[in-house]
Amino acid sequence: MGTDENIRTGRHCVFRPHAHLVFTTKYRHAVFADRHLRRCAEIMRAACEDFEAEPTEFNGGADHVHLLVNFPPKIAVSRLVNSLKGVPSRKLRREFPDLTRHHWRAQRLWSGSYFAGSVGGAPLSVVRQYIEQQTRPL
């Protein structure tokens, strides 16, 4: 096995799983400005630490976010997603009351669905470039 700085080790394994996650806002409302996205990235980075996961790329638009995350194999993607959607939803709605006006019925920031794609076969540089190009529409 060659040397690769992206390979991580656990007690009984060597791993490098990455997932490309996409979360959309409830009803696809265009609610995010740059300040919301910056804070969302900070919150998601902290949430990843609780799972020993490493966010390697983050970007988004007015109605969605993209996250490329490296996570240990002991973590189920669904558990990671649950935390990555729940914690930012609570914190962003508390810190930015203007976000709640778009979700008066459901009191949820995110849609109940999400996209999770394995990027093991794609070069990470290609996925990073794709996420970097996902900018907020004006």
UniProtKB/TrEMBL annotation:
Pfam short name (any one): Y1_Tnp
Occurrences of domain Transposase IS200-like (ranges): 14-134
Name of protein: IS200/IS605 family transposase
InterPro entries per UniProt: Transposase_17 (IPR002686), Transposase_17_sf (IPR036515)
Highest taxon of the lineage: Bacteria
